[in-house]
Amino acid sequence: MKAIVCKVFGPPEALVLEEVPSRPISPSEVRVAVKAAGINFPDTLIIQGKYQMKAEPPFIPGAEVAGTVTEVGAKVQHVKVGDEVAAIVPVGGYAEEVVAAGDVVIRLPKGMTHAQAAGFPLVYGTSMHALKQRGQLKAGETLLVLGAAGGVGLSAVQIGKLMGARVIAAASSPEKLALCREHGADEVIDYSKESLKEAVKKLTKGQGADVIYDPVGGDLAQECFSSIAWNGRYLVIGFASGTIPEVAVNRLLLKGASAVGVFWGAFIAREPKVSAENFQQLFAWFLEGKMTPHVSQQYPLADAPKALRDMLERKATGKLILVP
Ligand SMILES: NC(=O)c1ccc[n+]([C@@H]2O[C@H](COP(=O)([O-])OP(=O)(O)OC[C@H]3O[C@@H](n4cnc5c(N)ncnc54)[C@H](OP(=O)(O)O)[C@@H]3O)[C@@H](O)[C@H]2O)c1
């Protein structure tokens, strides 16, 4: 099979397309012929050796795929050969074929395309877990989403709206904010042009946002701590800006607020039943036509370096997908 291989840590341009041998599956695994592979921000870090989870070169990057089941281990009951599925893998997704642990292979709902499915579990799974279990978002509350046109950001806008929140989307260009409005944002803030803190203050009549979803970190996170409501919850999602923010905890004290960590990868391993319930709800919304995953661009497998470069240069909106 063909695959994109990281032979040495480095920039996306150091990745190579190669012929790689398939491996046999174990009784608890499933083989999937990959029709689409999702690009995720952590992929840009893992190839540089900068992600919290390390992989030793040579390895195939890529954490999520969609495709057709071609082989099923004897212990796996819930899927069969020919099923259309999405799968999460630690690495290995940028390839014509993956072998995944059976318990992270999910059957697709009717009508979901391979491209949509390859960009679904990680970002929607993260945002659902973040807003429901970690943020305890309630109908009528105000949700502020940073990086709101990105992968996790846009899914948080959609889910927040479906949970009944008033959603304020914050991003760096009018085009990105227009996309957020299309997907349900009630209000928008262009933080490349105006102060996030002042804009939130104005939109919430000085109250601040009840829940803040932050996949960006850096200086914007500091503004978030000034924009949080009484009893607010600041959700630590990620650090796309490259800077992990530090918080002076007196700012939480003054608002009776909490900073809450979100780690979806650990959540699905530790709480698989709750995670399955989250996906049931997400797929139900999809089937009811209430939520449409946004795939902004598809690339051939060989163009994985270009797709990763586009993500690093903040050109991506919604999901970028590789098509082997
Ligand atoms: N906690 C978890 O379980 C979990 C799960 C999945 C992902 N994550 C994390 O969430 C973050 C976002 O992931 P994603 O896949 O949504 O990425 P993405 O699609 O690239 O979105 C990230 C957004 O961050 C903003 N940004 C600000 N500064 C940036 C910079 N220097 N470089 C790139 N983007 C920048 C961009 O929006 P603007 O241009 O509008 O500012 C961009 O749309 C990553 O840090 C990832 O590791 C965490």
What does this protein structure show overall?
With 324 residues, the chain is an alpha/beta fold. It has two domains: 2-120 and 294-323, Quinone Oxidoreductase, Chain A, domain 1 (Alpha-Beta Complex); 123-265, Medium-chain alcohol dehydrogenases, catalytic domain (Quinone Oxidoreductase, Chain A, domain 1, Alpha-Beta Complex), CATH 3.90.180.10. It contains eleven helices and 15 strands. The strands form three sheets. Strands 3, 4, 5, 6, 7, 14 and 15 form a seven-stranded mixed β-sheet that branches. It has a six-stranded parallel β-sheet with strand order 10-9-8-11-12-13, with helices on both faces. It has a two-stranded antiparallel sheet with strand order 1-2. The longest helix has 16 residues, at 272-287. It starts with a strand and ends with a strand. The mean pLDDT is 97.
